[in-house]
Design a protein that fits this description.
By secondary structure, this protein is α+β, with helices and mostly antiparallel strands. The protein has 2 domains: 70 residues; 110 residues, Head domain of nucleotide exchange factor GrpE (Nucleotide Exchange Factor Grpe, Chain A, domain 2, Roll), CATH 2.30.22.10. Helix content is 53%, strand content 17%. The strands form 2 sheets. A 3-stranded antiparallel sheet has the order 1-4-5. Strands 2-6-3 form a 3-stranded mixed sheet, with no helix packed on it.
Amino acid sequence: MIEDTKPQDDPAAQEELKGVPEHMLETGDGGDAAGTLEEALAQLRADLDTAKQDVLYAKAETQNVRRRLEKDIADARTYAATGFARDILSVSDNLSRALEVIPADLREDDRLKNLVAGIEATAREIDKVFAAHGISRIAAMGLPLDPNQHQAMIEVPSADKEPGTVVQELQAGYMIKDRLLRPAMVAVAKKAD
């Protein structure tokens, strides 16, 4: 006669069942304990697979967060001067305007030559500093309107220019590295009436 042993009587079976919830060990009306063990083992394997999957997802999410943070840090370093650069553009604009309004005859006047030379030197220095920090002027004149870099302010009738071509730059535009710092404000040609 085959002896019916219960898991509670067998030390090896007890060791295997450690950590298995009590409700999974109940055999009901004296049913087969081996079937219950198989069910418990299958459940534990499923739980292990789920846990492995959760760990993989957590690792992937951690890696994605790390990459995003590295990109944010790199962007912060690269574009840290953006606010300051926008503010200093008005200084550059004012220097350019000052140079544009000086008539040619006053540029030759001995009393104003040094003043004009000083303003020109300051404008060159600002351009040099802009270049050192990746700030570059946007090309506009004679090019087709690019809404990513140009802001059309007015349309000018033109018989000799293609419609949509920039015919006048009202205010210079600038890029900082590969980002728009300020769009160029332009006048574009339209078909002559």
